[in-house]
Each structure stands twice: as structure tokens, then as C-alpha cells.
Model the fold of this input.
Amino acid sequence: MSSTGSIDENAGSEPSRRSIRERKQAQHFGHSEPNEELEELIEAPKPRKIAPAVRKGGKRASGRPSLWVKLPLPSQTPLLPSPRPQSSPEVKVENSFGAPPESSSQNSKKRSAALPDSHDESDLFAPSLCHGTTLKKQRLESSAPKQRAAPRAKVALDSDNETRPKPRGQPEVWAEMRQALCESLTYYQAYQSGAYTWGSSNGSAGYAYGFLLDNDNDDYGYMDEKVVITRLGGGMTSTKSGKMVQTEDQSSSSNKVTPFVNNQRDRVPVILIVGAKNPHCPTKVPHRYNVLGVYQVTDIWSEKVKGKVVCRVRFEMLDLKTPSWCGIHGSSLPTPTPDYSTKASLKTCTTCNTSSKEVSTAGWMCLNETCANFSIINGQADQEAPTWNPAFIDERNKWPAHIKAPLQLKPAPPNGLLNASLMETSLQAWKGMVCRDCGRCNSRTKWDEWKCETEGCTFEVPIHYPIIPRSQLAPDHAFAAEGHSIPFDKWEAPVVRTESEFHGYWRKATYEISPGNCITHYFANEVINRQPGGADEALEALQGTKLGMQRFPLENSPVEGEMITKHFGINFGLPYNYVVAVDSRGFSEAPPAIMDAVNHLTWAGKDAIKDGSYRPFNELLCLGYMEKQSIGWHDDGEKDLGPDIASWSLGGAATMGFRMKSKYWKFKERNADNYDPELPVRPGSQAWKERIALNELYQAGHMDEYEQAKTALFKALDKNKNNGPTVLSLELRHGDMVVMHGEDIQKNNEHGVMPKGKLRFGLTGRYIKPENIPVEEHWKGEFTIAPEKVYDGDLALFKANFPEEED
Ligand SMILES: O=C(O)CCC(=O)C(=O)O
Ligand SMILES: [Fe+2]
Done:
């Protein structure tokens, strides 16, 4: 899949999960495609800004390009009239640029490359999309039940918008937030591009499904209630002031253009959406994002503006019987029986012998990019303020009535009865909802319901989950085997693994990531999991309990407006200081499965931390991950937290990775001259082994070899690489626990969790320093477990079964 376009390339993204306090988080964007991968997650480390090259500022260009010509395509077909027989038969109708469709290489890989973050494609925790972000650090003054930080604020509309005439009607479907738009509409899941395209993997460039017309800085953009003309993007660079300027020619064969060529050739309609920042909309747009309707692509061509080639597309609304909401209130309605005879004149270039439409009032120009006469009107290459040829605007191209949009403009709301088969489709499980009553696109912010966020609108769809059996969610060790689990963890230097240990039925592996900083993996087995209060019971109970899980807002939203994590969460015990809008319920009010988790984690914490620093966990965060939801790279180090953290995995398997933070991993020296061989080398950082060897040469006084080795090192160094390898991957299965012990784990390293199954719960226990929590909240972190219920690692059971074993 790819997502391309010229307009509003606000880098977007969406959250993966956010941890609670100040950890950096991953977010995702949902760039999905209609039928296959419905949701992609691209994850990047840390909160990060969109690369300027793809972040369009959004203000329209001031000053008009003085020259305005149109340029067409190579081959025979400049301005490409649509491929229907009735329109200009002399114009060839295939690929308007005469170029072969782009190959499959411009699929999701390319798309990812166009993302602001240069994340590593092979990064396990960067499956597709989710960009680092941080959960909002908003202190919860009190843990009184709090609703989600208010229905996401309306984003300020462009000031021009206010002065436009009143529209004739209201859009059938609309959104205030980009994430809600993308999560609710299968035809529009582009967080950072104007166009949402899909289907590029089968040797074609795919098709455009939806196109957002927003920050359109094309002075020549055009929109009325029937026709839209806009540019197709590419070649733009953001200036320091955020203004987008075209610095390169737009390529007619780029993946920003070819999907539209395919739409035109194969008669695949495109659904257009207008944003409040679009300066060309004839009327005031009521919402931030407003679905306009279903359009055909009638023409795609190139022209030269200020010396740069610009690719443009003309769209025509298919259904004139239902007048567009964006027409001017009180104006006469467009005739539903259009005049197909109006046509812009088509002239043949005497230089290249190709035909082009006359699109400008300034006169006819050859639109063949390869022609010496390209984009020249009456011998002039720079025309002043041209306007569109009215005949070109008024053209009406026939469209067979039976060809409809492949996707529903207003998708029906989900019915709320999720069953196991629907869980197969990740988007089904956690996509947004278009309100049946008011047409608003809403993200699914709560685990248990879809709810329209429009004030006064009461539409909601409660979700009734069936309990999915453990055998389906976590078949891994469903053999009823009583043996110890087989470990599949992977690690590399400088991580050191201790000898395998057993603790009754538990297998234990401890990994030292740096001296004194250890991660212990407790591998559960079947016997452990099926005990009362064990993983099997907790997995079932969590599915059957209304926990009130919701998605967290992210602090640094990479798209305009607020974004929320993909996964859901709820906090118990001491209030999570930095969590926004998450109820923090006391342990005494927690459902039994939560206390089972606390019980298990307390045992693991005590077992793993033997140096006297163990502090009983007084907070538990329960995260729910549906299919393809993950938590990207982040750390759990916050000043109000103890350094030790333990987690219990329930349901689907997951990989938990650890790596050094970029700021410590990345090689600092820009070139060999400022390399200092006396600085200590941090084990695990970039080229650390080579540097240690290099520094040894220096220390031994072998200067010639040192210089040679230094030159070789700098030559081999990948200076563009920002992140080091995952040095430890824990393969977590149902019932497993992990204890992180030591400040360095959070300070110098980061971790991420990528669940693989359809449903997983990650329950994480932490110690929150009570001195920073209001005294009246302290009771929330307190709990007592009856002595006979205190989890003992199932040791008594093990001893009863294996009385001959020694401790
Ligand atoms: O889901 C998990 O197992 C761990 C989640 C995590 O890293 C966190 O809550 O900070
Ligand atoms: Fe974490």
C-alpha cells in the first residue's frame, strides 16, 4: 500500500501505546488498505517531529506563479481526457503519461520511506506505523473518575473559512480529528498525505481511494460543486516559516500520480474530502474534515509553474442528482442532466504532433513535457495570472451509471457484536465509527463501546465480547504438558545471560544488560497457568470484566490535533501521575484478576530482586492489545517511579525487545579528525568493539596502525543509522513474567512490546513513590492478600508433586 498526495502532508501518525508517565512512546498511523492489511503501524522511537520534507505547512502560496502553463505528458497524450469513447476520440487514452505503471516496488516500502521517520524497516517494533510520542504528562490532581480529556477540541479552522458563503447543506460524513477520520473510513487512512492509495503490490501502482484536499497551496487549485482541480504533490519542500515551496519538478511517473492514472484508466472513482484549510472551497466548510462525494478522474496533466513541472488532476463529481453540500446556499442547483457537448478545444502541437486540451484562458499550450514547445503560450513561457478555460471547467464526462464507488461513502456503524471471527480482522476490532445520526467519524476510544463525541448526539454502540478461549488466543503451550517451557529468547553482546534456573515449575533466565542491571524472564508452563488465580483464569476474567479500558492521548501528536494510542489501558492502585483521563481505582476496588496479577508480580519482584532494594508494587497498569496493536520503543524511567518493574503476559504471545537509546548508541564524532581515543567506549554502542580495538592500538602507541584503522572505521560507519540493534528479545508467552531491575535499564535503554496474537493483556506492576501522591490517595495503593492466598510461585504444589527435589 502506499499513500501519496500533495496536500496536507502533515506528518501523521498514531500512537502505539504510551506508557504512563514520561516515557516516550510509539504511535501509529493507520494506513490501511481496503482488504488486506487494514492497519499498519509504523513505529519510531521517541516523540519525534515530522521531517520537513513531508510536512507541509499548509498556508497557500502567496503570489501567483507568473508563468502558468500546462504541461502534459510525454507520449502522445498530453492533457488526458478520460478514456471514454465519447470524449475526444483522437486522444489516446491509456496511461496519460505514456509511462508504464510503476512497479510493485512502490508499495508500502516506498510509502514508509516517505514517512517522516526514517525508521528501520527491519525493526521488529516498527512493523508498519507508529511514531514515537509521549503520553500527555498531565498530572492527575485527584483520581476522581475522569472522563477522557474532553471531547477532542475542535481544531481551529482557517480564518478564510469564516468569511466564505454559507454552504447549501451539510456533509454526510465528517470528522474533527485526522485520526478519527482515518480510523473510521476504509477509503481514507492516510495520516500524512493528501491521497490514500492502495493496491500497489501486484505490479501496478494501485489506485487512489480517497483524497483529502486541505492545505492546498496551489494558487491554481479550483473547486466548485461539480469539479475539483488540484495538484498531485511531490517535489515540495517546507521553508523555515512552514510554507511549502516547490523545489523539484513533479514527476508524472511518480507514485503520487500513477494511482490516479489507474483510477482514470480503469474507472475507479475516488472519494474526495475537503479540509477546513482548503482555500478553494466555494463555501464555508462546517468541520475540519468533510467528505465531499464520489468523483471520477477526468484529466491528469503537467504544466510548468515558476520553472517547475507541476502535475494536476481534474475530478468531476459523479452524481449531480444529489446536489453537493458545498454549493452556495440559495444558489441554483446544477442541472442533473448535464450538457456533454461542452468541451475544451483540443489542438495538435505543430512541433511534436500531440494533442492537448486548452485548459487556460491565456491560450493553448502544448502539454507534452518532452516537447520543445511544452508549456509555452503564444511563444511565452511565463504567463501572468491565467485562469481556467471555462469550457474546460464546464466539461461533463459521461460515466456509466452502474459503476459506483467501491467503498461505502458512509459506512454503517459496527453492530457491536464482536465475535471471534471478527477479531480476525484487526480493523474490525478497533476501527472507528461513523455516527449513524450525525455522520461524525469517531475513534473507538473505549474498550467496551463506540460512542459519538458530538455534543448532544446520543448514538452509541455497546460492544459485547464473547470470551475467546485461551486455547484460541494462546495455543502455544496448550499441550497440557507439565514440563518446563522451552526458552526462545535471543540476546547479543553486551547482554550476558546467566545460567538457566528453575523455580519449581517456573523456568528463569536472567539477562544482564549492563553491570547490575538485570531483566529476568519467568517462563510459565501449563501447570502454573491452570492453577486457581493463574493465567488461564485471569485471561478469561479480564475478558469478561468491564475494566473501563480506554486509549490514552499522546503528548506529541505528529498530526494536527490530538492523537490517542492504539492500545487500551486502565490503571489500578496509586494514581498514575501522568496519565490523562484514566480512572485510577484503588486496589480494594479492583476485580480479582487484577489482584491475581499483583499477587503474581509481587512474588516475581521479590524473587528477582534479592539485593534488598525491592519495593512492593503499589500500582498496576493493565494494557489491552488487539490484533496488530503494540507498544513502541519507550522507557519506563520517571522520577516518581521506583526503578523496578514487573509485568505479566496474558493471551497472545509477544516479543519484548530491548535496545540502547539512540542518544547513547549513535557514534558522536562527525569525522576521524575529532575522534578521541581516550574517551571511554560504552559497550553496546555503535562500533563499540572496533573502537575498543582502535583505542588499544592508540594506547599501545601503534600510531600508523591506529590511523589506518581509524580511517577504515570511519569509512565503514553508517552515519545515517540512528538506532542500534535489539540486543535482547524476550519471547513472551501466556503466563510469562518479566522483571526489570536497575535504573540503567530505563535510563540508557528502551523497550517495546509487539504482540503477535489476536488479544493480549500486559499487566505491569510498578512502585510509585507515595511522597508525590496526595495522602488521601494512598489507600488506593494498599492491599492485603490472605496469607494462604499469597502466591508462592506454585512451589508448594511443585514440592508436593516432586517431594524428592531439593530447594
Ligand atoms: O505489555 C507489556 O507487557 C509491557 C508494557 C510496557 O512496556 C509498559 O506498560 O510500560
Ligand atoms: Fe514499558
Notes: The chain has a mean pLDDT of 77. Residues 471-660+727-799 form a domain with the Jelly Rolls fold (CATH 2.60.120.590). Residues 19, 634, 636, 751 surround fe (ii) ion (ligand 2) (CB under 6 Å). Residues 592-608 form the longest helix (17 residues).
